[in-house]
C-alpha cells in the first residue's frame, strides 16, 4: 500500500449524507420496536388534532348546510314592516303598500300578511281566551307561498274560494300546539269555527309564519274585522338588484312617512346567527389546541425515555460511522414520525366525528382541506419541537459512554 | 505497512484515573493481534482509542498514517464508517430486524443505496457461513450465530481494521472457537484484526499477543521478536 494515498484517503473524506429515505427508515425502525408506546403517544396527539378537525369540520358543515339552505330559499327576500312614528307609537303601513311595492322595477313579486291582534285561535271553544299558545292569527294574501317560498306539508294553500270563507292554514308549530295532525278539522278562531285546509312546512326565512294561523284577506275582513293594513310586506327582488330595491322600499311602501318603515333581509339574520356560533367555535379550537399541546409533551416524554433506553444503540451507530448530526436527525425524524402518525390518525378521527355529527343533523359533511393539511403540518412542527431536546441529548452522548450502557 | 499506531499515548479520565500511561503500539497489515489483560488494565480504553471512539489526553494516534487526535468529530465518524469495523461482546444487534438488514446497516453511514447494502450484506453473511439465516431475527439465532452476524456487519464495508471487544465473552467455548476461527480466516483474507480479551487461553491462540497491566504494555511479542 502506498503511504501517501493512505494518508490522504481518510483525512480528506467527509462523512456521507444520510438520504431522506434512509433517515425515514431509521426513524421508523425505532418506532416499530415499541408499538404500544408509540400507539399511546400518538393517541395523545391524535386526540388534540381530532378535536380541532372535528370543531372545524362541524362548523364548516353547518355553514355548508346554511349555504345550501340560502341557495334553496334565496337571499333576495326582503320584508317591510311598520316601525314606530315620531312619538314612539306603533306605525301602520298604508293599505296600498303591497301594490306599490309590487309595481317597483326589479321587484319580482310582493305579498303581505297582516297581524290580527284581537283574534286568537284555540283547539275548541272551551279553552279560555288568552291561552292562545303564542299562536298569532294572520291575514294572508294568496300569493304569499310563491313570494316567501312556502311549502305545504298537508292539505292545500288557500285559494280564491276558501279565502272568503272561514278556512285557515296552520304553520307547522301552530299545528303542533293545536294538536292538528291533518287538515279538515275545525279550530275555534275569533269566536267562530274555522276549518283547517292545510298545514305548512317550517320555513327558515320566515320563522314568524311557523307559529301562525293564516286566514284569507277577505275572510279576515268579513269575519274578523280586519282593517286592510298589512303588517309585513314580503317581496322578492331580482338577485342583482337587491340592494337597490332595499334602499327604495321604505319610501315606496309608505311615501308619506318613510322613516316609519322597517326593512329587513331575513337571510342576513340567518347568516348573523351563524356568525355568533363562530365565537364558540374559536373557544373549542382553543381547547383542542391545549389537548394538542399536552400530546406534544407526551411525545417529548416518550422521546426522552427512548434516548435513555437506547444508549447502546446510539453507541453502536456512532461506531458504525454515524455523525452527531445523523444521530440528531434520527431522533428528530422519529419524533416527527411519531407525531405525524398521531396527526394522520387525528385527522381520520376528526373526519369520522364530523361525518357522524353531520349525518345525524342531516347536514352535508365538509372538512376543509386546509384544516387537514394544517393538522398534519402542525404535528410535524410539534414533533420537531418535542424531539429537539432528546435528539440533542442523544447526539451529545460520547460514543464510549453510550457503548458502556447495558 | 502500519494500519494503526499509538505513540506515547496517555489517557486520563476526569477524576484522575489514568487508564493508559504512555503506551506505544503499532499494528501492521494482515496482523491478528490479541490484547490481553485483567479488567482495569486499560485494554478497553486502548480499543476505544484505536477505533477513534475516544481521544487521547496526550500522545498521537495514527490510523493508516493519519493523525486522528485532532480530526473533527465528523471526520472521525467518516473514518469509522469506511475504515474501521467493530465487534462487541453484547453483539448490539437490532431486535426485530432480520440478520440481512442488521448487516446492511453496517454500510448505512457510508452512503451506499439500500439495494446495494442488502446485496453486499447477503455476501457478507455468506462469507461468515450464515447464508441460510438471512431472514432470521436475532432472537431466532444462537449466540455464536449472533456474533457471526455482528462480524458480518463489521466487515461488510471491507474495513482496514477490525476491532473486536471480547467477542467470545458471551459465548460457550464451542461457539467461541468458531468465532475465533472466523476472525482468523478474515485476517488471512487481508483484514487487520485487533482482539481484546481477558482470557489468556484465547490470546494464546493468536499469532501476536500484547499483555497489559495497569495501563502499560508489559509484554509485546512483536518487540520480543524485534529484539531477537
TrEMBL record, chain B:
InterPro entries hit by this protein: AAA+_ATPase, ABC_transporter-like_ATP-bd, ABC_transporter-like_CS, ABC_transpr_LolD-like, MacB-like_ATP-bd, P-loop_NTPase
Pfam families for the chain: ABC_tran
Top-rank lineage group of the source organism: Bacteria
One GO location term (cellular component): plasma membrane
Gene3D superfamilies: P-loop containing nucleotide triphosphate hydrolases
One Gene Ontology molecular-function label: ATP binding
Keyword Transport: yes
Keywords recorded for this protein, A-Z: ATP-binding, Nucleotide-binding, Transport
UniProt keyword ATP-binding, yes or no: yes
Ranges where the ABC transporter domain occurs: 4-226
Protein name per Swiss-Prot or TrEMBL: ABC transporter ATP-binding protein
Species, as recorded: Actinomadura darangshiensis
Lineage, uppermost ranks: Bacteria, Bacillati, Actinomycetota, Actinomycetes, Streptosporangiales
